[in-house]
Design a protein that fits this description.
Strand content: under 5%
Structural class: mainly alpha
Radius of gyration: 66 Å
Order of helices and strands: HHH
Distance between the termini: 204 Å
Shape: rod-shaped
Number of strands: 0
Oligomer: single chain
Length: 162
């Protein structure tokens, strides 16, 4: 190698030996410190991104908790309005029941009045029938009496009694 050095020194070229090769490697290939710096820089970027993601997750969690609280509050409002609606419906049903009771009482009164009217009509019909029977019996008696007198008159004429 000494011959190579001597000839290269004379021509103005660089001498290739172990030191030059190391120098070339150091210049063209980054050192481990460079990689360490780059990895540290990437790690810092990832840490920053993960911090942002953690913050977003925390925000989502707090908004989810707020949403849960809001939903619980709204469900409670719905339940309370349902209870109020049930109470109102019960009150209205009670009013309807009372109205039906009043209508039932009115029908009972009308039914009682109709019964009284029918009773009076029945009494009048019965009285009329009794009067008609009595009248029929009197007319029948009169007719029979007249027939009997006519028969006696006819027999008297036949036997020259009159």
């Amino acid at each position: 190698m000494s011959e190579v050095q001597n000839s290269s020194e004379k021509s103005g070229d660089m001498v290739i030996n172990e030191k030059t090769i190391e120098a070339l490697i150091v210049r063209f290939i980054p050192t481990s410190q460079y990689f360490e710096k780059r990895f540290d820089h990437l790690e810092d970027k990832f840490d920053y991104k993960f911090d942002i993601l953690n913050d977003k997750f925390k925000q989502l969690e707090t908004s989810q908790q707020a949403l849960k609280v809001d939903m619980d509050r709204r469900f409670e409002q719905v339940e309370s309005s349902q209870q109020a609606l049930k109470a109102e419906m019960n009150r209205r049903f009670e009013q309807v029941d009372k109205r039906f009771e009043q209508v039932d009482q009115r029908f009972q009164q009308v039914d009682a009045k109709l019964d009284k009217i029918i009773e009076r009509i029945d009494k009048r019909i019965d009285e009329g029938l009794r009067e008609n029977r009595a009248q029929s019996f009197r007319l029948f008696t009169f007719a029979m009496t007249f027939s009997a007198i006519s028969m006696v008159g006819m027999l008297g004429r036949l036997f020259n009694v009159f």
